[in-house]
Amino acid sequence: MSANILKGAAVAAALNEKTIEKCNFLKAKGTEPCLAIVRLGNRGDDIAYEKGILKRCEALGVKAERILLPEDMDENELINEIERLNGDKSIHGILVFMPLPAHINEKKVREAIAPHKDVDGVTSSSAAAVYTGSGVGFCPCTADAVMEILKFYGVEMAGKKAAVFGRSLVIGKPAAMLLMEQNATVTICHSRSAEPEKIAQDADIIVAAVGKAAALGKEYFRRGQTVIDVGINFNAEGKMCGDVDFSAAEGIVSAITPVPGGVGAVTTAVLLKHTVEAAEKYGDKS
Ligand code: NAP
């Protein structure tokens, strides 16, 4: 029997509906939610992501301000630009496309973003907010998207075993934390984990965020599992694919997200949800 395909579009549509409602309410009260998008240079994947965000902003009524900067920009000038955005009361969220060019200290730039405008969850203040459950900041959008999918499709998490593959600060670690918050028992696997197949087989929920095409093959799966594939990779034929061998897993597990059309479809909806929440919570705070 093949798995239930957990499409991201339905999840995004439900999130967008609430975002539109909240956005209209704020506009009626005189606050127009606005996202600043900072892009250095002209990387193809940044441009594609930006295009998707701008399209969504227009559809939802969220204002977007693009800040296009040269790839060889000086680090201090970039930080000054971010500080200018921090001080602009009409901007509620700041997204800086990463990775940044090698001559720029990415950590310094991330930390320059005001926590109450950090809608992509890249500052240590946001990380602290995720780990402590309080404070100023937002959860990284992709980790939040994983949770929105699980909740939307009614996947039970309390008391279940979850295996998260990947321990990055933007996906693996926060996703593990959010799963634990939902009372799942979580194991985090990384590139040096021993017997990852056994850990995966033992789990009810698998989140794959390793960044390698088809890294999780059929030996990782068993019947009854829910698999969330965060990966965005390209196979030898140049076709987009996830971290899970989809054709192998689909015939084994109970439910799985597709790539494309899974987590990626929800990430932008979460970004705009965070932007409107930032406008709602912090309004005209500079
Ligand atoms: P990352 O920073 O490169 O981290 C990858 C993690 O995977 C590392 O912790 C690494 O372990 C671990 N890993 C590597 N090979 C492994 C293996 N065979 N088994 C278990 N763990 C392994 O990547 P990321 O930024 O978290 O992104 C992960 C994936 O998500 C990428 O494909 C990226 O393109 C995708 N992504 C998707 C979205 C979306 O909206 N869908 C958004 C952002 C990113 P070590 O720590 O030991 O090196």
Binned strand content = 15-25%
| Separation of the first and last Cα atoms | 54 Å
State the helical fraction: 40-55%
Give the uncertain stretches in residue-range form.
none
Largest sheet: 6 strands, parallel
- Identify every distinct bound molecule in the structure, by name, code or SMILES: NADP nicotinamide-adenine-dinucleotide phosphate
Number of helices: 10
Number of strands: 11
Cα Rg: 19 Å
Named CATH topology of the largest domain = Rossmann fold
CATH top level label of the largest domain: Alpha Beta
The H/E string reads EHEHEHEHHHEHEHEEEEHEH
Shape: globular
What is the fourth-level CATH superfamily of the largest domain? Answer: NAD(P)-binding Rossmann-like Domain
Residue-averaged pLDDT, rounded?
A: 96
Strand order of the largest sheet: 1-11-8-7-5-6
Structural class: alpha/beta
| CATH 2nd-level architecture of the largest domain | 3-Layer(aba) Sandwich
Count of all domains: 2
Set out the fold topology:
Blueprint lengths: L3 E2 L2 H21 L5 E7 L3 H17 L2 E7 L5 H13 L5 E4 L9 H7 L11 H9 L8 H12 L8 E5 L6 H10 L3 E5 L6 H7 L2 E4 L17 E4 L3 E2 L5 E2 L4 H5 L4 E2 L6 H20 L4
Parallel strand pairs: 1-11, 2-3, 2-4, 5-6, 5-7, 7-8, 8-11
Antiparallel strand pairs: 9-10
Helix pairs in contact: 1-10, 6-7, 6-10
This protein binds NADP nicotinamide-adenine-dinucleotide phosphate.
NADP nicotinamide-adenine-dinucleotide phosphate binds next to helix 10.
